[in-house]
Design goal:
Oligomer: single chain
Structural class: mainly alpha
Shape: globular
Largest sheet: 2 strands, antiparallel
Number of helices: 18
Distance between the termini: 53 Å
Strand order of the largest sheet: 1-2
Length: 450
């Protein structure tokens, strides 16, 4: 009898499915419900999926529906989803002094999309330690506000919010309206934004910055110049998107009384900045998303599509993917043979991967929008907002998620899963053969483009 062999990518996909299934079973138990009555399985499955896929869309209020046990299950799922199943399992193996085999190392390499297998154990240790340190600092800062506000319960809220923010999950146990009650609180908004940005930058950017800082002398502080091309692109695109998004949202919402119209200038700036950050796959809301102007909603959709950066906790098409597509298009317009950024040439394989990711992303979004509008009575902008939010694992909604029928919930569940595991990973896992191994090239023929 032939033994079934799975590729590393297929193992990763199945591991996420397994965690979602186990989480849904636990959440469907009466002990997970705040009132002791089991939550319908479709809502338990939805919650397990949105937690593991660190999305944040919810069909039932997290703070009032789930007991402490249920919330603890959700928090564990968020942490596993943010770090990745492979990372968590590797951490447990290292904790019990288990030696990693070649198969384990291949899994780690594929999970983080790394180009080398050297230093993988050190990399995973750094990821786990760095995550715990940042989440711990975030929780401690949250406690300065949440303990005076909620008493001893504020400790749990602070811990939950810190993990959820760093993992870009956007799920909270504060209120039904997310962080709207703390929209103008500088500490809550800035700490949440910092956690979201750090998680979205990606682990390899962290280590690259630390590497350069350690190697630079006090006289030579030009850190950016010595970063890798990947880090330069991530930092530049992230900064531009956050600032540009904040400016546009500030302009479009300035006179909107349903969002920031009645706030003072400093609060308007703070809320606009937070909205720009949270759309980068975080999912926390400081203003009701359904009250945004159409222009701000459009800006938010664009930011959600782009998302965070590779090898981090964020979703979306990723900053590097979009940057490669933009610079490749500019090179074509300028009739240049090569695509270059910051004095470095981008390989053709990277451009092809970027095109594949973008194509898969928009395909998933389009199918999701069509199915949502076919099965639910929703407006086009609400359906697009929901589908993009699910595909990019953002978690923001124009008050639509809870109103979806069972068909709509299943559509979003599938969309969140595909968005989390990644279009490329899905394509590789389902592919049966590697066509690049063919030694005979097919004949070339020019076609008309545009």
């Amino acid at each position: 009898m032939n033994k079934i062999r799975f590729t590393t990518t297929q193992i990763i996909l199945l591991s996420f499915l397994s965690v979602i299934f186990i989480g849904s079973i636990l959440l469907a138990l009466p002990v997970s419900s705040a009132d002791g009555v089991a939550v319908p399985y479709i809502d338990a499955l939805f919650t397990a999926t949105t937690s593991t896929c660190v999305t944040g869309l919810v069909t039932v209020p997290t703070f009032s529906t789930w007991s402490f046990f249920g919330q603890a299950v959700i928090l564990v799922l968020i942490q596993i989803g943010g770090l990745g199943v492979v990372t968590v399992m590797t951490g447990l193996m290292l904790l019990f002094n288990k030696k990693l085999g070649i198969g384990d190392r291949l899994l780690i390499q594929d999970a983080f999309n790394l180009n080398t297998m050297s230093g993988l154990v050190r990399f995973v240790k750094n990821v786990l330690i760095g995550t715990l340190i940042i989440e711990g600092i975030g929780a401690a800062l949250y406690m300065l506000v949440f303990i005076p506000e909620f008493g001893p319960k504020g400790i749990w809220i602070s811990l939950f919010n810190s993990v959820s923010a760093f993992c870009n999950a956007g799920i909270d146990v504060i209120a039904e309206n997310s962080l709207c009650d703390f929209a103008t609180d500088p500490l809550i908004s800035l700490v949440t934004s910092a956690l979201v940005i750090l998680g979205g930058l990606g682990y390899i950017v962290w280590w690259d910055i630390l590497r350069v800082v350690k190697s630079r002398s006090k006289k030579n502080r030009k850190i950016f110049r010595h970063l890798t091309l990947h880090s330069k692109i991530v930092i530049t695109v992230t900064a531009v998107l956050i600032l540009l998004g904040a400016v546009l949202i500030f302009i479009f919402e300035y006179s909107n009384p349903l969002t920031i119209g009645n706030m003072g200038l400093s609060d308007k700036i703070l809320v606009s900045f937070f909205q720009s950050v949270t759309t980068r796959t975080a999912g926390f809301a400081s203003v009701p998303q359904e009250n945004l102007t159409n222009a701000s909603a459009a800006v938010s959709v664009v930011l959600m599509v782009i998302g965070g950066s590779p090898v981090g906790t964020a979703g979306g098409m990723k900053t590097v993917t979009v940057a490669v597509l933009v610079f490749s298009a500019l090179a074509t317009i300028r009739n240049k043979a090569d695509t270059s950024v910051f004095g470095r040439r981008i390989s053709d394989s990277s451009i092809k991967k970027a095109v594949a990711v973008a194509t898969a992303f928009f395909t998933i979004c389009t199918v999701s929008v069509v199915l949502l509008t076919a099965t639910n009575s929703v407006s086009a902008i609400d359906a697009v907002y929901e589908a993009v939010s699910a595909t990019a694992t953002v978690g923001l909604s124009r008050n639509l998620t809870a109103a979806l029928n069972n068909a709509g919930k299943i559509i979003i569940i599938v969309t969140m899963y595909f968005g989390r595991v990644g279009p490329i990973s899905l394509a590789v896992a389902l592919g049966s053969k590697n066509e690049s191994q063919n030694v005979i090239s097919e004949p070339t023929e020019e076609i008309s483009i545009g």
